[in-house]
Amino acid sequence: MTWSADNQHYVITELLVGTAYAATVTDSPAPTDPSAPSADPVARLLLADGHRLAPEAQTVTLLDLPDDADAPAASLWPRVRSHRDRLDTGPSTDTLAEAVQGAELVLLHLPTSLAALQEQVATIAAHAAPQAVLVAAGRVKHMTPSQNTVLARAFTEVQPQRGVGKCRALHAAGLRSDAPSPEPRSAIEPTTGLTLVAHGPVFAGPRLDRGTSLLLKALSAQADRALTGLDALDLGCGNGILTAVLARSGAHVTGLDVSRAAVASTRATLAANDLPGIVVLTDGLTEQDAASADLIVTNPPFHVGAAKDSTPTLGMLRDARRVLRPEGELWCVFNSHLPYLRTTREVFSQVTVVDRDREFTVLRARG
Ligand SMILES: C[S@@+](CC[C@H](N)C(=O)[O-])C[C@H]1O[C@@H](n2cnc3c(N)ncnc32)[C@H](O)[C@@H]1O
């Protein structure tokens, strides 16, 4: 397969067939090659298989592909829409349903979470064109037979393909009329009595995470100020458990998250419990005004995508000082081995460890 830039369009030659195709998809172009269709081999496999199966498709949806796949896809098909869960990974439709509406071909970068896959597949079944074809692919080491089972609930034909390099595709066609509906999961959380709603890949699903549970206990036992009327932020709000608890305590709360699924989940959790609150799709605290909050609570992210990287969270902890009012407080729970205590001590003058067990540390910072 050769890709060349021609009047801003990518042209595929020696196309996408048989062993020639298999061999060439395996050969990753150097990431610096300006004519490479995508630096990601899974995206290249998806584009190649999608074009082989549905070259005439009019409406094509890319789900969670890297943004460097958009341009080559737009050169292959007339109407291409992309959906990505994280705000910071490229342009996206607001919702999954909007992205797959009427799609004849859907290219899906398989998520690690089966719950996320279930919601994606059910949304495709509810909104794509009846003749829709799905090509789903991932790294072989992240794939499991359960993913085929999930696809088979929505499609009558599911065909796993041979591996191409370290990647593999699943082809699915024949949408079932009895496919599951794309409802988010929900459950009553017993310690708080709150109904939690979880879309797709949201952290902890509709459950209370153990670290978050420690943070909640510490907050309710040791907060020496009533929460009523405080301007509070829940940084990385996920399924909305902390946002909902703060709202129920009378705080003016805003949930912040970089994930569209998390924002939708927190909004749904607030609605399910008839609680007020604002929820914003945003990256960290970057859009928050200086000295605008009395309280920030967070069970912060400990990884970016599949890679564990604490750098973004260290930046958010530093930014918390800017956003808090002079008497404001940061409450944070984290895995005890992470370097967050040291960073928080560099930024705040008073840092107290309010709870700690073998796994988690809860801290309170001010000043
Ligand atoms: C460990 S989870 C906590 C979720 C929820 N607060 C709870 O306690 O169950 C961390 C959350 O941070 C979000 N997140 C990751 N990176 C972020 C960023 N740059 N800005 C805002 N939120 C982010 C994730 O999407 C995830 O929902």
TrEMBL record:
Residues annotated as domain RlmG N-terminal: 93-172
Domain Methyltransferase small: 194-364
Keyword Cytoplasm carried by entry: yes
Alphabetized InterPro entries for the sequence: DNA_methylase_N6_adenine_CS, NAD(P)-bd_dom_sf, RlmG_N, RM_Methyltransferase, RsmC/RlmG, SAM-dependent_MTases_sf, Small_mtfrase_dom
Protein's GO biological process: methylation; rRNA processing
Keyword vocabulary terms for this entry: Cytoplasm, Methyltransferase, rRNA processing, Transferase
The keyword rRNA-binding belongs to this UniProt entry's keyword annotation: no
Single GO molecular function: N-methyltransferase activity
Stored CDD domains: AdoMet_MTases
UniProt xrefs under Gene3D superfamilies: Vaccinia Virus protein VP39
Name of the protein described by the UniProt record: 16S rRNA (Guanine1207-N2)-methyltransferase
Annotated source species: Kytococcus aerolatus
